[in-house]
Design goal:
The chain is an alpha+beta fold. Helices cover 53% and strands 11% of the residues. The chain contains twelve helices and seven strands. The strands form two sheets. The chain has a four-stranded antiparallel sheet, with no helix packed on it.
Length: 393
């Protein structure tokens, strides 16, 4: 997203570009071996990009959603797994930034996040409920000043590598499945027993294994706000916007490879339009649609984030759902067009125009969270919510 930016954001982009250069060197090996992109994450720490969302007065840089999405895009052009890890980390950081400042423990933890460049992971999925993050089977047990939790977490992306895990559960053993809280557990406060191995078509470097989580920590590490409010007021928007930034980055690199292919063909036949030139124009248009979609979503979030009621409104939920649906569906069309342009050189591995990794990684977009689930939620909301037809809102 090459937009007009303030000087400090240019510095963020430059730092992200240095990380991307390292991530790109290891991207194919990370994908082939299905391993955590350690070199890139170490570079994120070195560039101090893990704590930039924390407010300035708490030791961070107060990075905006546009800045975070832009970094996701820059990383996505180099290594999809690195970009997705970065996005998921900042989705969790947003929960702290938006809902933790009034809590003494969570405020202190935010300062640690910025100072120590801690990597945050999420555990919202659970055996028996699948990807429905708004329900839990497990329940946190509070015993005086201590809380304990055991959870069959079917997916914890980069769980073995994280410095802390933000995990959901029912608020107590008699609570309804939707009566949830989220708790921060630090690495020394929990154990992980691997139950599922992440062997997938794409996004292999996220290492999203399943684990039996067992944790014990001070009860003050439970967020004071119900998870339903955290999910609606920060997680919904940040997930869809930052994921879309990643996907835009993947698609951008695919288009860049297709453009290089067409330019190489043009040099061989000066004076005539090379094969693929028209398709390149078409795919550039589709890429612009994704970019505009993401920027519009970020603008809507920025205009709404100060109003908790609007953040929890049906109209806002539909708008964020639409950002995710559009981005995740369109990038597959873009990469497919790019593959047609590059032909066999894009189909083969190990060429400057190879697109196999891009295509496999992009297929995850419609599954995180399932587009069918999101469309079903939007359909239910639209039964009672009037469709917004204004260009001014």
């Amino acid at each position: 997203m090459n937009l007009a930016v303030a000087p400090h954001r240019e510095a963020l982009s430059a730092r992200a570009a240095r990380v991307a250069a390292i991530a790109a060197k290891h991207a194919d090996v990370v994908d082939t071996e299905g391993r955590f992109p350690k070199e890139a994450v170490d570079a994120l720490r070195q560039e101090k990009l893990l704590g930039i969302q924390v407010p300035v007065h708490m030791g961070g840089e107060g990075a905006t959603m546009l800045e975070l999405a832009d970094i996701c895009s820059i990383l996505g052009q180099a290594c999809s797994a690195t970009a997705m890890i970065y996005a998921m980390h900042h989705i969790k950081a947003s929960s702290l930034v938006e809902h933790g400042e009034d809590s003494q423990w969570h405020s202190a933890f935010m300062r640690r996040l910025a100072n120590e460049q801690l990597l945050l992971a999420s555990a919202t999925t659970e055996g028996g409920i699948g990807g429905n993050l708004r329900n839990s089977i497990c329940a946190i047990e509070v015993d005086g000043d201590i809380c304990r939790l055991e959870k069959d977490a079917t997916v914890i992306s980069y769980g073995s590598e994280a410095d802390a895990i933000l995990i959901t559960s029912r608020s107590h053993k008699d609570a309804a499945p939707s009566d949830q809280v989220m708790t921060v557990f630090l690495k020394h406060q929990y154990s992980l027993e691997r139950t599922h191995v992440w062997d997938t078509l794409g996004m292999r470097g996220t290492r999203s294994d399943g684990f039996l989580f067992k944790g014990e920590a001070p009860a003050e590490q439970i967020f004071p706000k119900p998870f339903a409010e955290i999910a609606a007021q920060s997680m919904l928007a940040t997930s869809h916007l930052l994921w879309s930034g990643v996907w835009y980055g993947i698609a951008s690199d695919a288009v860049a490879r297709a453009q290089s292919f067409v330019r190489a063909a043009a040099r061989k036949s000066p004076g005539s339009a090379p094969p693929g030139a028209l398709r390149l124009a078409e795919v550039s248009n589709k890429l612009q649609i994704v970019k505009s979609n993401v920027i519009a979503g970020i603008k809507a979030y920025d205009e709404t984030r100060a109003d908790p009621d609007k953040l929890m409104s049906m109209g806002f939920a539909i708008a964020m759902n639409n950002v995710k649906i559009c981005s995740s569906e369109t990038i597959l069309e873009i990469i497919d067009h790019a593959l047609l342009i590059c032909g066999i050189m894009g189909y083969k591995n190990g060429t400057p125009y190879s697109l196999g990794r891009h295509l496999r990684d992009a297929h995850s977009a419609r599954l995180m969270i399932s587009n069918d689930r999101i469309l079903s939620n939007s359909a239910n909301l639209l039964l009672v919510q009037k469709q917004d037809t204004s260009l001014l809102r």
